[in-house]
Amino acid sequence: MMPPVEGGGRLPLNVLHFGRMLRRAGLPVGPGQVIEAQHALLHIDLTRKRDVHAALRAVMATRHEHWDVFDAAFALFWRNPDRNIAESIMAALDGLRRPAEPQKPKAGARRAAEAMGAQSRPKERPRPPEEEQRIEARLVASAEERLRKMDFEAMSEAEIRAARAAIARLTLPLDAVPTRRFRPDPLGPRADLRETLRRSLREGGALVEIARRRRRTRTPPLVALCDISGSMGRYAPILLHFLHAVASTRTRTHTFLFGTRLTNVTRAFRHRDPEAAFQMVSAMVPDWSGGTRIGEAIARFNRDWGRRVLGQGATVLLITDGLDREGGAGLAEAMERLHKSCRRLIWLNPLLRFQGFEPKATGIKAMLPHVDDFRPAHNIDSIAGLVHALSAPQARRKAA
């Protein structure tokens, strides 16, 4: 049971509901954090809102990327600490319904508002009988299968949100490559004579068991070059959610966006909160939904970034429809250099969704001879197929 707070009244209950709201907004807040928050409030002046905010955030938002969501939730929830929980929620919802001047919301504000709305809704009714549940389960499975095969361009906003959530759950395994270094392993294939002699000297020169070692393996870098021009406007945002999910769980992942110019957004994608990450990306990229200069963008990547990120057997994902505004000028040379600099070059093209697709555009003709794999990227199944292809063993490249 939570300890009472001096002069708290309804404060312990409100702190409990505030923790539930943060959990609905995606923060890892459990009963332990709620109890620690109660203890923290015993040591501050409750009449100073700034001190209450600092104490609760120190306990309930331990990661820097959670601060934006916490600040937005705190501003919504603790508008009047003298009211009970129901009045606080209704007042916050009334404030959300009032028309306000259009301004760019801060990262986490939408998630906090949705969590507040979910907390104020009544509980769901009991489930229907068992026979009706089976019918509903079949309908849900059919809807999920339909969503996986639906083209991103034909989806509604609600279906787009569901597709982003499904893609974010996909994991991207890459086969590890051997390095020059070794690690101790009692079952390793190589004998470690140096370590064996050290053990023998520690034992006074007596014979000891031979130490063994195994070569270290490391996941190769993953580099993504994503086209954000107007023709990719429906596909690029969804694919970027997939790349953000990969960058959040894997090291040595580099992401570049290009339209008329090349922009490195790797640092922004390291932010674990997708909402904050994409707000940073929108501020960094000046040419969203514009024209396309594929050859110039790839040539600049080769010149400025190739040696930095393409070492140790990197895999490159090139996401574009191949429609170059410059008519493919210099594209073949840039693609040839990129292909020779990486271990594997995979081209994801949404145009492959059309049956009978033929590479008639000049840019597509210039790019195709220099890729190892040419795959579609227009629905959830195509992204899942990419994950399966990357986890499979790579075939040896054919000689030119």
Which terms summarize this structure?
single chain, 400 residues, alpha/beta, 6-stranded mixed β-sheet, 17 helices, 9 strands, disordered N terminus
How would you characterize this protein structure?
- The chain is α/β, with parallel strands linked by helices and 400 residues long.
- The chain contains 17 helices and 9 strands.
SSE order in H/E notation? HHHHHHHHEEHEEHEEHHHHEHEHEH
Q: Biggest β-sheet: count, sense, barrel?
A: 6 strands, mixed
Mean pLDDT: 77
- Tally of DSSP helical segments: 17
Choose one word for the global shape.
flat
Q: Roughly what fraction of the amino acids lie in strands?
A: 5-15%
**What strand line-up does the widest sheet have?**
6-5-4-7-8-9
- Structural class by secondary-structure content: alpha/beta
Ends distance? 72 Å
What proportion of the residues is helical, as a percent range?
A: 40-55%
- What integer value in Å does the Rg equal? 27 Å
Query: How many strands in all?
Result: 9
Task: Name the poorly predicted regions.
Answer: 1-7, 81-86, 88-102, 130-141
Topology:
Elements: H1 11-24, H2 31-41, H3 49-60, H4 67-77, H5 85-97, H6 109-120, H7 130-149, H8 157-168, E1 177-184, E2 190-191, H9 193-202, E3 212-218, E4 222-227, H10 236-249, E5 253-258, E6 262-264, H11 266-269, H12 274-284, H13 294-304, H14 306-309, E7 315-319, H15 331-341, E8 344-348, H16 362-367, E9 373-375, H17 380-391
Parallel strand pairs: 4-5, 4-7, 7-8, 8-9
Antiparallel strand pairs: 1-3, 2-3, 5-6
Helix pairs in contact: 1-2, 1-6, 2-3, 4-6, 5-6, 8-10, 13-15
